[in-house]
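Standup notes, protein team

Yesterday: finished cleaning the Kocuria varians set.
Today: Probable membrane transporter protein structure.
Blockers: none.

Input for Probable membrane transporter protein:
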Amino acid sequence: MRTLILLALVGFGAQLVDGSLGMAYGVTSSTLLLAVGLTPASVSATVHLAEVGTTLASGLSHWRFGNIDWRVVGFMAVPGGIAAFAGAHLLTLSGEAAAPVMSVILLLLGIYVVWRFLRLGGRRPNFTGKVRGFFLIPLATVAGFMDAIGGGGWGPVGTPTLLASGKIAPRKVIGSIDTSEFVVSLGASIGFLMALGSQGVDFGMVLALLIGGVVAAPIAAWLVRWLAPRILAVGAGGLIIFTNTRTLLRLDAVQARLPGDAAYYAILGALALLWIVAVAWVVRRELADRRSATLRTEVRVPESV
């Protein structure tokens, strides 16, 4: 029971980040489930089955608050779902050998999330024009495939890419990615159930993640209008980097090359310190930007004579 309550809290936190950031539910949940010893295929199957419900709730919530660009959803949902179905079959065939590969993918996604939002610094360009369909379809294919084999990837690949285009408002990027992810999660779940069967999935874990995510979905859709995404991005990305680095350092091949336990703890300690520094920096930057914005609205520049 304690484990299920913890998973519900994980699902709540992951969906709160995902619904307000457009990424990190799958990556965060998969990272934690992988760390407690589940096989890669079971982890991804569990997360995607839970996401069928959480993404539906998230999509409805984003629709309620007007956060969706239906053109983007139309181009991305089906190709992403087909690619996720294919990725699910590949992961189930690879078996236990996929564990370190999955950790590497999650680690790279975590680094990408942190780097992307530290580099962007929360800038908001002018959102004009449209992202073309011939770009959205291959983007959805890559993101959907990565999502299935890595336990997360739809948001980390899709959201920053669309944000970087400067053509879609951030809240609509996040709402559109979350809404189209329903089809991606459905495609991956069908693929896993066909390959693993129901015996390969712990439905108690699925239900716990689902309950936490559904409760958080409307809150996140509301928060996306004002919450600073870079703080959440660096916080979640740092957790992903730390946990997956820890998993890789515990591999026998890596342990044999380390000079001792001191090196193991030194690496993790250095990562934790960098994570704290990065979070502190983005919080300070966000507060400074908000103070500057407040001063600009309060100060009245006298007209030139």
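Follow-up from PR in the comments: The chain has one domain: 2-297.
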